[in-house]
Amino acid sequence: MAPPERKSILLSFEKPLVELEARITQIRELAEENDVDVSAQLRQLEARATHLRQEIFSNLTPAQRLQVARHPRRPSTLDYIQAITDDWLELHGDRGSGKDDPALVGGVARLEGRPVVILGHQKGRDTKDNVVRNFGMASPGGYRKAMRLMRHADRFSMPIITFIDTPGAYPGYEAEEMGQGEAIAYNLREMFGLTVPIVCTIIGEGGSGGALGIGVGDRLMMFEHSVYTVASPEACAAILWKDAGRSGEAAEALKITSWDLKQLGILDELLPEPVGGAHANPIQAADILKQALVEQITELSQLAPATLQQLRYQKYRQIGVFAEAA
């Protein structure tokens, strides 16, 4: 995974930090040109930059976290697969439509020597790649491919890992004609019956049914600056107030952040990100993810298949259950 190109992609709330970093670079260059020792001043400025970065990213609003989750340089499914696994072999096609959906990738690999099946949404890095990947919005064939690979995992007793990063399932006419809703609903039902461990991780944007189509698992993990929502804040604002410009208000009300979902009991594990977001240090983010996956799969693999199914069922039956005070 290549380091991010910070100069070309700047989030609005990062501006004070970037200006300070540019000042540090300018002072360093001038000092070298004039052979002046300003190491003490540079250390002070670098310490201030580190503090400012921590302050900014520890106090993000839900709308700002959404910006981080959508960052074009944020590590993708294929980035993480490359960083944390060995012997990756991508598999294609749903064995039904005769097509392959590049918005949802899957295959087999080894994680710390253990064979696993990995599935995930795949966004593009630029406009051309995003068009090919359909911005990570999978078609019915993508979800049917996912289920084909999950059945393969179940048949050969391989744990399933899913990486969720999509604004939602593709809402186009062709997708509806091919049974988009049925494909997602079918996956929801069938994933409850699988007998192998399933660990789902939201690595970026978890949107609507498109996320749920590969999101039923024994454990749900989520990166710190990722989001998980029934509808995008822009869509929610347009529906409720006929004004997409109120998306920040909607993001606050929807409770889309990892902290919100942890408090609501939906999230099992919150994964910390490097300061500045996963795109600031992809290798460190991959190490954090790998360690968490290995721990979860090791723990779940000790359970009997029937126990896995029962606990998975109970986990989702408890979501949304609450008691009113008298």
TrEMBL record:
HAMAP family membership: AcetylCoA_CT_alpha
Function as written in the Swiss-Prot or TrEMBL entry: Component of the acetyl coenzyme A carboxylase (ACC) complex. First, biotin carboxylase catalyzes the carboxylation of biotin on its carrier protein (BCCP) and then the CO(2) group is transferred by the carboxyltransferase to acetyl-CoA to form malonyl-CoA.
Pathway the protein takes part in: Lipid metabolism; malonyl-CoA biosynthesis; malonyl-CoA from acetyl-CoA: step 1/1
Xref: InterPro entries: Acetyl_CoA_COase_a_su, ClpP/crotonase-like_dom_sf, COA_CT_C
Subunit structure of this chain's protein: Acetyl-CoA carboxylase is a heterohexamer composed of biotin carboxyl carrier protein (AccB), biotin carboxylase (AccC) and two subunits each of ACCase subunit alpha (AccA) and ACCase subunit beta (AccD).
Lineage, highest ranks first: Bacteria, Bacillati, Cyanobacteriota, Cyanophyceae, Oscillatoriophycideae
GO molecular function: acetyl-CoA carboxylase activity; ATP binding; carboxyl- or carbamoyltransferase activity
Top-level division of the source organism's lineage: Bacteria
Organism: Phormidium tenue NIES-30
Protein name from the UniProt record: Acetyl-coenzyme A carboxylase carboxyl transferase subunit alpha
GO biological process annotation, one example: malonyl-CoA biosynthetic process
Family per record: Belongs to the AccA family.
Enzyme Commission designation: 2.1.3.15
Domain CoA carboxyltransferase C-terminal: 44-299
Catalytic activity: N(6)-carboxybiotinyl-L-lysyl-[protein] + acetyl-CoA = N(6)-biotinyl-L-lysyl-[protein] + malonyl-CoA
GO cellular component terms, semicolon-separated: acetyl-CoA carboxylase complex
Subcellular location: Cytoplasm
Keywords: ATP-binding, Cytoplasm, Fatty acid biosynthesis, Fatty acid metabolism, Lipid biosynthesis, Lipid metabolism, Nucleotide-binding, Transferase
Enzyme class name: transferase
